[in-house]
Write a structure and sequence with these properties.
The chain is of the alpha/beta class and 456 residues long. 55% of the residues lie in helices and 8% in strands. Helix 8 packs parallel to helix 9 and helix 17 packs across helix 19. The chain has 21 helices and eight strands. The chain has an eight-stranded mixed beta sheet, sandwiched between helices. It has three domains: 83 residues, SRP54, nucleotide-binding domain (Four Helix Bundle (Hemerythrin (Met), subunit A)), CATH 1.20.120; 196 residues, 3-Layer(aba) Sandwich (Rossmann fold), CATH 3.40.50; 138 residues, Signal recognition particle, SRP54 subunit, M-domain (434 Repressor (Amino-terminal Domain)), CATH 1.10.260.30. The two termini are 26 Å apart.
Amino acid sequence: MAFDGLSEKLSAAFKKLRGKGRLSEADVKEAMREIRLALLEADVSFKVVKQFVSQVTEKAVGTDVLEALSPAQQIIKIVNQELTDLMGGSAAKLEIASKPPTVVMMVGLQGAGKTTNGAKLAGLMKKQNGKRPLLAACDIYRPAAIQQLEVVGRQLDIPVFQMGQSNPVDIAKAAVEHARKHGNDMVFLDTAGRLHVDEELMDELRGIKTTVEPTEILLVVDAMIGQDAVNAAKAFDDALDIDGVLLTKLDGDARGGAALSIKAVTGKPIKFVGVGEKLDQIEVFHPDRMASRILGMGDMLSLIEKAEQNFDQKKALELQEKLRKNKFTLTDFYDQMKQLKNMGSLSDIAGMLPGVKASDLEGASMDEKLLQRMEAIILSMTPAEREDPKLLNSSRKKRIAAGSGTQVVDINRLLKQFDMLQAMTKQFSGGKLPKNLRRMMGKKGRGMPGMGGMPF
């Protein structure tokens, strides 16, 4: 995650404070010096850092903190609140037009990821809000831009409007009219970018804005370019009066300064963040949750939401009943592995857990090839064999190995893993869960509260 380096440095600064019973003003100033250096190294704007440290210091040297029983915790609380305020305070929603279609104009420099992330956002609105989006290809300059939009449109099952190499202003106007006639309640305009901000680009974008009067102008910014992202945001805001920012590549090896500086410099909120290459890896930006993650306090709300989106409630209830009756099958085993895989990499999940550093699990993920082998093996079995693996004698295993392109040893390994899992679930069936696990999973041991009954 982008803030790993910053999180480690802030944790080190707070650790020094925790070792002291009472804090002096000198202790606070020393901690603020380390926080200032950590923020500057994260590529946060110097002006923003100066103001942030000044505000935290002013509150931290107050008598309430210096005389508190746990002053270090008080300072962490102040830093948490100031970080939240710095990034916008609360999540900013996408404005929806009172009379459809809602027109969202995606702008930004070339290479920021407008085409892919505009499609991702359309997919998010379709999946979570039940919208019927239309993607409009208004970038007529970049080679294969239209084809790229059509490819991601097909993958997300979202229609794409294009008029080839026509005037971008005419394309945008025709796309909105097409949406009205065909019942699309949202239009995402994929506009052209340049390698740098220039007047020709801005004139074209101003022309589109004047003609279609978009409901929202979203600037797509690459988090990896650090302070340049803030400069680009200011230039686009001055020219177009943007409504918000979509920050991409926040999962990359970035220092994260852009996320902490953009709102303070432009006054415009970060509304969405791209957190991976897959077309479903886009999230609403929550400043309070991000501040919590930066300070190593985790982000359980986002983890719960991610689980709810990826775990089928009906299947979870059916599985719960099977576990209770100790009827866990190979089909269920495969379903659970697939759903866990959909939640993303282990390092992403770890970053949402309090006290766990995502960097400790950097690069850890489900083994794609292993999962593919498991899928091939399980799908090569008959329904009866999946329900009762004891039927699998030597000849059946050879048949399954031939059908799945694997070896008998792979089948034996899978069956051994399944037997171990079955033995574990047998211990927990009938409600006989250890007390600490029962507390974790809720009063009746039916899964973590709010996680759609997700089984352990």
